[in-house]
UniProtKB/TrEMBL annotation:
Keywords: FAD, Flavoprotein, Glycoprotein, Signal. The gene is LOC100276794. This is Putative FAD-binding Berberine family protein. Pfam families: BBE, FAD_binding_4. PANTHER family: OS08G0158400 PROTEIN (PTHR32448). GO terms for molecular function: FAD binding; oxidoreductase activity.
Length: 531
């Protein structure tokens, strides 16, 4: 966009600077005024893209993970700000507020409903603040701590931690291309959660740009806001640029296995038993299940040697029939490759590949299961999984450390009393309305069928498995309606939702940071006193 940027630079040069802001030249529309403001605030023009820019589409799609949100009927950003330093993010917020352009921050682009880079409101004027350049990971192995930028991927964090120490790790998710920012702000769980809790449980500081454009850390933002961004969705409260992580200890050798069982090999029986066994296993062991087509795949990580793992399986789950030949003894960093790429022998450098899997169309939903689902239900579920348009089910067991942390310690409330998280996941590559309708119908249909057997009042879900079917926001007097947002909010956050809204009213009372499922400000009439 050389021509546009030239005009912006010229406009910025002739605008008067006052208290670090730009007096907007008359005759410019809101978007142009926003861009002029950015240039005047010191953001290099090369970091700005508009729909008229040759690189706009390439930049926008650079980390789009769900092709459902690149169609023509989705509102795209009026600009992309590829910030490279905190001052650029501060300028985006300040200029956005001044000129009526909202800001949506994007780290890895994995939001299941595309809310970090697209809007369902055709009248929404927003800019994407792309944090891909905030990807530094600095490890202090002596203190067992690390700082990670929101734009870093989980794979980059794992690689950096392992390069610094063979006995340190960070408890987060399986997919290595997921961005740190979104993952941590939604809670974030993975194969170490039963021993060490969520990724968000292991955050000890953060750097955030608030709605006034101020750069804050844990001390200056206060404990309430620090509480909110660790599981309540950071995009509702500001732009988190980096996170200080508490690293955890792992043995030099861990053990993994994958055991596949078909319908004809008692898969229904094994899944039924697994529901009570997996959450009660020792916290050093996680045994998760992926169910697809006519098979169930049981995947384990144990923080120890194969001999001890086999002993646990013989005592707790002999029906699965795990043998020594099923086990692999590897390092923790190899286990991250094992779960991401289905092989421990692939090079560790794959963790640094930010492009990852081929972009696809995605729809997912989630549940929490608190009582074992009867076997006859699992038998009936196979008919759903055998359909040509079927996706898969992913069952992640809780228990262990997940059951001992208070449900109000962070906004993530799904602790004691939950056996496992159940994810309904569908992805496809073919374009077109017919494919979309079939896949969406499959996910929604199976989700509806499972309703009697999952959590109730409310039926809960995991905010990192974003699902707009649960409800979307509406505005009242130009702020997000609290009453409307409760419909979906209490499903993600249960009793923590009201406190999140109280923090929102304190940190962003004018509701600058908002999207289809952002936290609303708590109405003043409800009150909350000092939080």
């Amino acid at each position: 966009m050389p021509g546009i940027l030239y005009q912006l630079v010229v406009a910025a040069a002739i605008c008067a600077l006052s208290s670090g802001s730009i007096a907007v030249a008359s005759g410019l529309n809101a978007t142009d005024s926003f861009l002029v403001c950015l240039v005047g605030a010191g953001v290099p023009p090369r970091l700005l893209q508009t729909p008229a820019s040759p690189s706009y589409s390439t930049t926008l799609l650079s980390s789009v993970r769900n092709l459902r949100y690149v169609t023509s009927d989705i509102q795209r950003p009026v600009a992309i700000v590829a910030a490279t330093e905190p001052a650029h993010a501060q300028a985006a917020v300040r200029c956005g507020r001044r000129h009526g352009v909202r800001v949506r921050a994007r780290s890895g682009g994995h939001d299941y409903e595309g809310l970090s880079y697209a809007s369902l409101d055709p009248g929404e004027r927003f800019a994407v603040l792309d944090l891909a350049a905030f990807r530094d990971v600095r490890v202090d192995s002596a203190r067992a701590e690390a700082w990670a930028g929101s734009g870093a991927t989980l794979g980059e964090v794992y690689y950096a931690v392992a390069a610094a120490s063979r006995v340190l790790a960070f408890p987060a998710g399986i997919c290595p291309t997921v961005g740190v920012g979104g993952h941590l702000s939604g809670g974030g769980f993975g194969t170490l959660m039963r021993r060490y809790g969520l990724a968000a449980d292991n955050v000890i500081d953060a750097v955030l740009v608030d709605a006034d454009g101020r750069l804050l850390n844990r001390t200056t933002m206060g404990e309430d806001l620090f509480w909110a961004i660790r599981g309540g969705g950071g995009e509702s409260f500001g732009v988190v640029l980096s996170w200080k992580l508490r690293l955890v200890r792992v043995p030099e050798t861990v053990t993994v296995f994958t055991v596949r069982r078909s319908i004809n090999q008692s898969a229904s029986h094994l899944i039924t038993k697994w529901q009570a066994i997996a959450p009660a296993l020792p916290s050093d062991l996680i045994l998760r299940v992926a169910v697809r087509s006519q098979h169930a795949r049981f995947e384990a990580l144990f923080l120890g040697r194969c001999s001890r793992l086999l002993e646990h399986m013989r005592v707790h789950f002999p029906d699965l029939g795990v043998t020594q030949s099923d086990c692999e003894e590897i390092s923790w960093i190899q286990s991250t490759v094992y779960f991401a790429f289905y092989s421990s022998s692939k090079p560790l450098e794959l963790l640094l590949d930010r492009s990852g899997e081929t972009p696809r169309y995605v729809k997912a939903k989630s549940d929490y299961v608190q009582e074992p689902i009867p076997r006859h239900v699992w038998e009936r579920t196979w008919s759903w999984l055998e359909k040509p348009e079927a996706g898969l089910l992913i069952l992640d067991p809780y228990g262990g450390r997940m059951g001992s942390i208070s449900p109000s310690a962070t906004p993530f409330p799904h602790r004691k009393g939950n056996l496992y998280n159940l994810q309904y996941y569908s992805y496809w590559f073919e374009n077109g309305t017919a494919a979309l309708e079939k896949r969406m119908s499959w996910v929604r249909g199976l989700y509806e069928e499972m309703e009697p057997y999952v959590s109730k009042n409310p039926r809960t879900g995991y905010v990192n498995y974003r699902d707009l079917d649960l409800g979307t926001n509406e505005l009242e007097d130009n702020v997000t309606s609290y009453a409307r947002a409760r419909i979906w909010g209490e499903k993600y956050f249960k009793g923590n939702f009201e406190r999140l809204a109280a923090v929102k009213a304190m940190a962003d009372p004018n509701d600058f940071f908002r999207n289809e499922q952002s936290i609303p400000p708590l109405p003043a009439a409800k009150g909350w006193g000092s939080i």
